[in-house]
Amino acid sequence: SFLKKVLVAFPMLTRGIGKKSSSGDVFFHISIEKIIEEAIAPLIEVNSLEEAKEAAYRRRPYFKMHVNSPLLRLQVIRITSDNLANLMVVIYLHHIIVDEISLRALEKAIHCFLNDSEFIMENEVNKYAGLMVEINTSLDSVEKQKCLKNFVEKYLVSNSANSCLGFSSETWSPVKTFEAKRNEYKLELDIHKICEKLSIDSFHFYFCCYLLTLKRYLAENDLLVCIPVTKRSHKPTGELGSLFDFILYRYEFKSDHNLKEFMLDVHFKWTNNHPKNFIPLSDVLSYLKHKKQMAGLKMHNAFSFDFKDKNDSHIINITSKHAKFPFFVNICENSNAKLEIKVEWATDIIDESIIENFASSFINTCTKITQNFETLKEVSISSIDVMNQEEKRQILSFNRRIEPIPNYYMHRLFEKHCNENGDKIAVICEERKISYNKLNEMAIVIAAYLLKVIPEEDISKKPIIVMMERNEWIIASILAIWKIGGFFLPISDDMQQKLLQIYADPRMQINIVLTNLNNNFLKIDIPEKLNVIDVRTIFSSGKKYHVKNNQPATSPGEMLAYMFLTSGTTGEPKRCMITHKALSILLESVTRDFKLLEFEVNLLQWIQISFDVFILDLIIGILAVPGTITIIPGPYRQAVFH
């Protein structure tokens, strides 16, 4: 009788998933009689409320899709020896038929039915048949497909935003199941005065704190968050029903915003996007899959906010069996300004220590802003420290002081090895063996030539592109650039398109490209304004070049050694500028940690030059100690044992 009342009040719970058609899953109606027959589990008895919670957790069902079976289960647990409760009614629901917001309405209804009181639906629910027709029609509409195309191109392909904590080789997939775990935290804050001053509500306050914390953990200024909402961009608008929506909310941080400006900006963008928006997340994923663009949204996080009144204390939420998102934060505020923070995550993707640190930092952010808003409101958001004290202490414990702080020029260390071990083999590539003296001679000739063709004022200001395959020429070219006081930007021979992207970037100023590629290996049309120098031709010309061994005009702490661009997989590629002093510190660290002075170093060089690990190879192999680097030629990189 109880379950029948629930199903009559919420007809969307009678939805099932049929076999897939060419356009996707097919939704259909399951009769109330069939659900009652299949969904009610036998009564069980336990001694205490805690045992009941444990039993409810253990008995979480695995819902089978596409077999015409109900997507809910009802389990009644009788509690025999507990002063607080004598009965627990557990309803398990698949997330495809109820989301976090709709769950609140369902909880209120269940409370009314169990106490024989009247339940009034705040939003009238359409008749089920009409609801299904409207939804399926909307999904297949031409207008919806245009909206999907525009959204994906704007937010997920051409300029994709980062979306989730990802610290595992596992990648989130909406068609794969991941085990879920949940941690709960309690907090008591009075934020209402702040909300009144800014004319925002509690949701916006906590959402701002969430974005600030997420920004810190992702080290990104461009974030994408899934948020459950009750409004749709298609019919039936504002109704409870199937296909409950998560919108995809994107926020780009502005470095010049102070805290007050940031919070008002988040509120403005939410209130102006919410009524119009958005595309349901499930549709976005289906579209990406169909267009074979799933890489555009590998992972995502979710944030939701609820308000719970004092009559809801009897409700106990059981952790889901499977994660709906890799990372899901739910904030629940009650009438006494008490806060419940629930963090649910996919255990195969995110380690629990990350979750604990994130939750602690989120609580720290909420508390700090609440207690110090008047002081912080004019402070730049980039200056607000969200990290919790324990994590800060742990990170600082990794720091090891080096006294005195090393401050070398990298090429000077190489020249020292030449003086002491000049005849020793520095580089092996295929059948060629190049000694330290020979490699230094090659570098000197290239350096002298560069001094002739590069204006003196450009040497320390504009990066020299090295677009080369890995062999002795790339190492000689790097040493040459350092000898003249310049710095380089590496491009691997298999990533030549990057040169055109860098050339088109107005922030970049480049004139010189060093290469050792034959014309038949050049896969791009190099802009005419670039001076492309094949370093091999400098030697084949037979001309004699010399370079003075002068002291550089700037110190190692100011003199750039190289720059590289991040991959762009988590946002816009960033330019990283590395000085000789920074490399000196790295060199000292690896010399000590790898105990390089205690054995003969022979390093197998495999990584492409666009990755800065390539520089680590040079440091270990020929700069920290006079070792030998054996370079695996490009054709054999994927067959190391060849």
What can you tell me about this protein's structure?
By secondary structure, this protein is an alpha/beta fold. It has 21 helices and 21 strands. It has a 6-stranded mixed beta sheet, sandwiched between helices. A 4-stranded mixed beta sheet has the order 13-12-21-20. The longest helix is centred in the middle third of the chain and has 20 residues, at 352-371. The protein starts with a helix and ends in an 11-residue tail after the last strand. The chain crosses the membrane at residues 613-632. InterPro entries: AMP-binding_CS, AMP-dep_synth/lig_dom, ANL_N_sf, CAT-like_dom_sf, Condensation_dom. Keywords: Membrane, Phosphopantetheine, Phosphoprotein, Transmembrane, Transmembrane helix.
The H-level CATH homologous superfamily of the largest domain, spelled out, is Nonribosomal peptide synthetase, condensation domain
CATH architecture of the largest domain: 2-Layer Sandwich
Instruction: Indicate the structural class.
Output: alpha/beta
Instruction: Kindly state the number of beta strands.
Output: 21
Q: Note poorly predicted spans.
A: 124-136, 231-244, 274-278
The helix count comes to 21
**What is the level 1 CATH name of the largest domain?**
Alpha Beta
What is the approximate shape?
elongated
Q: How would a crystallographer describe the biggest sheet? A: 6 strands, mixed
**Mean of all residue-level pLDDT scores:** 81
Looking at the structure, the CATH topology of the largest domain is: Chloramphenicol Acetyltransferase
Strand content: 15-25%
Oligomer: single chain
